[in-house]
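User: Second chain of the day. Same drill as before.
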Amino acid sequence: MGTKFANLHIKAIEPRDLEEALQELSNKAGTILATEDQDDVVNIIDRYVYRGTKQNIRSTKVSYYINQGMKWTSVLNDQFSWGTVEEVGQLFSHLVRKPIMTIGFFDEDIFELTLFEEGDIRAKKYFCEEWAKKEYDLDSELIDHKYIEETLELNQIELNKLLEISNPEKAIKELSRMLKFNLWMHSEWISNDEEIKQEYIKKDFEIL
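Assistant: Same format as last time:
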């Protein structure tokens, strides 16, 4: 089995606005984010739209690990994974009026970068080989060069260089270098690394 991780990032948000949005996210998606026991897993967006029941929640709180950077705030959760963090990101983009970026990395085969704003996917890119796109039956990409450049604050040369990379690990490390913060991160790794632990603050939100 290869490396798997996922994380979420919000651009330039005030701490108070972030906490209010995370509380609302916890209220709407707590059944998914609070516990690994997911007997009634449903689509997160469906739960948001239809206000799914909370009867199977095994915990009353959701825990996040937050790194409040200058341009981007990183948010980690134990339940984030490739295939689910994108749904969380789309839901979260309904709750904050800021660009949301999700990172999903699966088995050294795929690195998925997605940008959301106001509930819409504004850009999506799979960094992988052609065989992986076919084997995983990946959806179509959405490459809006201008939006990506403005949101990630990259110039055209940097973006073109990034988009040419097909190796997932190389691509995520290059994007980390360009953005000047670490995207190779999962909440489960924090407790084992004292240096990383100093960068993140754990915040718990009761599910209301």
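Strands lie at 4-11, 61-68, 72-76, 100-106, 110-117, 120-127, 201-206.

User: Great, on to the next one.
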